[in-house]
Design goal:
CATH topology: Rossmann fold
Distance between the termini: 26 Å
Number of strands: 6
Largest sheet: 6 strands, parallel
Number of domains: 1
Shape: globular
Strand content: 15-25%
Helix content: 40-55%
CATH class: Alpha Beta
CATH superfamily: Response regulator
Oligomer: single chain
CATH architecture: 3-Layer(aba) Sandwich
Number of helices: 6
Length: 146
């Protein structure tokens, strides 16, 4: 059974390209696309995906603010943040809000698929350039469980 995903990014070209590339993988099923944080929340509630790929800085309720709402609407959905920003505060906020991964947008498609698979399997994935920020964020979580 393919991993069911939704993709939320307000950059149309990036979103369409990512969708097209992911659709070429039999293990992935792209259920829908959103161009805003509010649409991402609505899609997650409606479609109950396994994984939501969400841009950190997206219009109409940014991705960081949308994480908790996505998780509230679809408790089984793992959230993978997408970003061009190697920003410590973004990574920490994402982890504290419940994201299970943070992937830099310069990643190749095979790495995107690998990250989706890891999150679907209950694991975490953080781009190597920001993994130290993620460790710091995990240390701030109550109980420090991972």
């Amino acid at each position: 059974m393919p991993i069911r995903i939704v993709i939320a990014d307000d950059h149309l070209l990036y979103r369409e390209t990512l969708c097209r590339m992911l659709r070429s993988y039999p293990a992935i099923s792209v259920l829908g696309e959103a161009s805003s944080g509010a649409e991402a929340i609505q899609l997650a509630a409606q479609l109950q995906p396994d994984v939501a790929l969400v841009d950190v800085r997206i219009k109409n309720k940014n991705g960081l603010d949308a994480i908790a709402a996505i998780r509230d609407q679809s408790i089984r959905t793992a959230v993978l943040m997408l970003s061009i920003y190697e920003d410590k505060q973004y990574v920490i906020r994402a982890v504290l809000a419940g994201a299970r991964g943070y992937l830099l947008k310069d990643a190749d498609i095979d790495l995107v698929v690998r990250a989706i698979g890891l999150l679907h399997g209950g694991e975490y994935y953080f781009s190597p350039a920001i993994s130290a920020f993620a460790e710091e964020a995990f240390e701030r979580l109550p109980g420090s469980v991972r």
